[in-house]
Amino acid sequence: MLTKNISNLLIATAIVTSSQVLAWGQNGHRIVGELATQHLTSTTAHALKPLLEGDSLAEVSTWADEMRSNKSTFWKKKSSKWHYINIKDADNMHQHVHHNISSKEQVKNILDGIYYGINTLESEKTSVDEKRFALRFLVHLVGDSHQPFHAGRADDHGGNKISVTFFGDKTNLHSTWDTRLIENERLSYSEFTSFIKTSNKAIIQEYLDSEPADWLLESHNISEKIYNLNETDISYGYIYKYMPTVKTRLQQGGIRLAGLLNQIFDKNAQPLVSALKLSKHEN
Q1: What φ, ψ does residue 113 adopt, rounded to 5°?
Q2: Over the stretch 16-65, which tens digit does the pLDDT of each residue have?
Q3: 113-138 b/e with 16+ CB inside 10 Å = b?
Q4: pTM for this entry
Q5: How is residue 105 annotated by DSSP?
Q6: 3-state secondary structure 118-162
Q7: For an engineered disulfide with 219, which of 13, 90, 99, 151 has Cβ 3.0 to 4.6 Å away?
Q8: What domains can you pick out in the chain, each with its CATH number?
């Protein structure tokens, strides 16, 4: 079972470069979307059709990054903070989790963005266009929340300022985890999804027994371990050590995305079987 530490979450938003908002690269996000599709109930899949407009979850999973080229104020100046969070003092955190986010202006970090998406999709007062926006962003943010360096340190911009070499090529720690570890497998997103898919009920139950704050705390803890080892010469040994973590995070992201969508759209979806067990919140 996942350790519950939601009440210990202290969030500090930091100014970061736009490169920090890119998580998992295109293939990583598509893997999460494709795996989620395999765990949707038929009721949820039907409810998503008008919102997806013919696209799949894998196809819309990269939308929030692609839209950064849009010249509107939101995409150029406001959207980047939706993609990440900086957590300080994980052992002595205070609760700063805001579950009732109802407008874009309230979003200060990825956790706010996830709850904006949930609330917009659940609301009977929001328009179809608002729900389409929320769904596309939510699919992306669930993926982001499972990339360890989207809950990294503010001072190095989530690993972007940490120089490493990847088989001799100069890059940075964030990019390594975004893209290079996944691309090194030489698999398409559908092939990768096929390799990590699971029907193990115990594993699925463990993953679904969680909330968005848990996912980010997990990412934070993973990133801290990687920071502390300070490995900068990345080759076969690093991949052997960390590829299981990458695969687990993608697997968790896909199953949890499906569980979240089933929780939103299918009232008959069973918690810890096909849906998250999300509690109701007042703050």
Answers
A1: -65, -40
A2: 434 444 557 899 999 999 999 999 999 999 999 999 999 999 999 999 99
A3: bbbbbbbbbeeeeeeeeebbbbbbbb
A4: 0.91
A5: G
A6: HHHHHCCCCCHHHHHHHHHHHHHHHHHHCCHHHHCCCCCCCCCCC
A7: 151
A8: 6-265 (1.10.575.10)
